[in-house]
Amino acid sequence: MRATRLKRRGLFSAPPPSARYAAPALDKGLDILELFASEPGGLTTSQVARRLGRTVGEIFRMLVCLAERGYISQVPDERFQLTLKLFELAHRHHPLQRFVAKARPLMEDVAHKTRQSCHLAMPSDGEVVVITQVDAPGSAGFALKLGAKIDLLNTASGHLILAFQPDELRARSLAAWRRRTDRTLPPDLQEHLTRIRERGYEEMVSYQVAGVVNISFPILNQHHEAIAALSVPFLPRIGDRVGPPQVKTALQAASRALSIAIGGRKAQLTSSGA
Questions:
Q1: 51 in helix, strand or coil?
Q2: How far is it, in rounded angstroms, from Cα 24 to Cα 20?
Q3: Which residues make Cβ contacts (< 8 Å) with residue 168, sequence separation at least 6?
Q4: Which residues are CB-contacts of 173 (< 8 A; sequence separation ≥ 6)?
C-alpha cells in the first residue's frame, strides 16, 4: 500500500490506515503527481498508464481532473507537464515559512560574525535539501545554492541529522539512502554518529570541495531530535582571524536560539565543543 511506502520514507508518523480507510482515487492522483515530478519533459497519457500499471481510461480521467485543477497542463505534442501550482502551494506552507523567517536573522548574524556563508538544511528521502541560505559578506566566498540536494552521507548536515534522529526514523532515512544510491552503509557509521551526538555538532572536511571544512549544529525539537541542521562551509582566507573555533561559537548560539524559537531544546556540548 502507498501508506506503507510513505511510512518508510518518514512521511507517516502514525500507523498506516486500515483498508476500510483507503482512498484509491487519491492514491492514484498522488502517484501521477509524483511521476510527473520526476519527468520534467512531460509524459503522454499512455506513458503515464504504462509507468503506473493502470489503464489508459482511468489515467485519462485523472489527468483531466488534475488539468482542470491547474496541477498539470497539456503541451502541443500531447504530453502533460506539471504547472507551478505545487511550487505555489509549497510557498504557502506556513510552518516552513515561519521556520525560515525565524532562521534568517540568526543566519545573517552568523555570516556577519564569521564572514562565511551559512545555510539551513532539512532531510528528504535519503538526501538533505538547502531550504534557505545567506551569502558570505564581501566580494568572495563559498556557498550552497538554495534548493541544493546533497547525499545524506556526503555532508556534515546529513551526518548531524542522522545522529540526532530517533532509531526508527534513522533506520528509515538510511533505507531511503540505500534505495536511492544502491550502496552499502559505511561499517563505522553508527560509531561515528554516536561521537557526533556526544559532542553535539559535526565538523568534517568537505567531500566535494578541497579546502572547505563543513561545520554543522542541530536544530532540535522538544524531543531533542534534529529537524534541520545549521551549517557553515568554512573556507579559510589568507590573513583572516576567524577560524573554526569562532564559527562553532557563532553556530552554537544561533542553533540554540532557533531551537528555542520553535519550541525545541538546546544541544548539550561536551568540553571539546565550541
A1: helix
A2: 11
A3: none
A4: 10, 123, 126, 152, 161, 162, 165
Residue 118 parent element (H or E): strand 118-124
- Integer CA distances (angstroms), 212 to 142, 206, 255, in order: 9, 5, 21
Q: 230-245: per-residue pLDDT in tens? A: 999 998 887 788 899 9
Q: Which CATH superfamily is domain 94-261 in?
A: GAF domain (3.30.450.40)
Of all residues in the chain, what percent carry a pLDDT higher than 90?
Answer: 60
Nearest of 151, 178, 152, 148 to residue 163 by alpha carbon: 152
Please tell me whether residue 164 adopts helix, strand or coil conformation.
coil
pLDDT single digits (tens) 101-122: 999 999 999 999 999 999 999 9
* Cα–Cα nearest to 21, from 38, 7, 1, 41: 1
DSSP assignment of 80-93? EEE-SHHHHHHTT-
CATH for 2-88, options being 2.60.40.10, 3.50.50.60, 1.10.10.60, 1.10.10.10: 1.10.10.10
Q: What is the pTM of this model?
A: 0.65
DSSP characters over 55-87: -HHHHHHHHHHHHHTTSEEE-TTS-EEE-SHHH
Contact 143, 136 (CB under 8 A): yes
Number of Cβ within a 10 Å radius of residue 81: 14
Separation between Cα atoms, residue 30 and residue 46, nearest integer Å: 17
Distances 36 to 54, 72, 90, 229 between C-alpha atoms, Å: 15, 9, 16, 29
* Element (DSSP H or E) covering residue 200: none
Side chain identity at residue 262, one-letter code: I
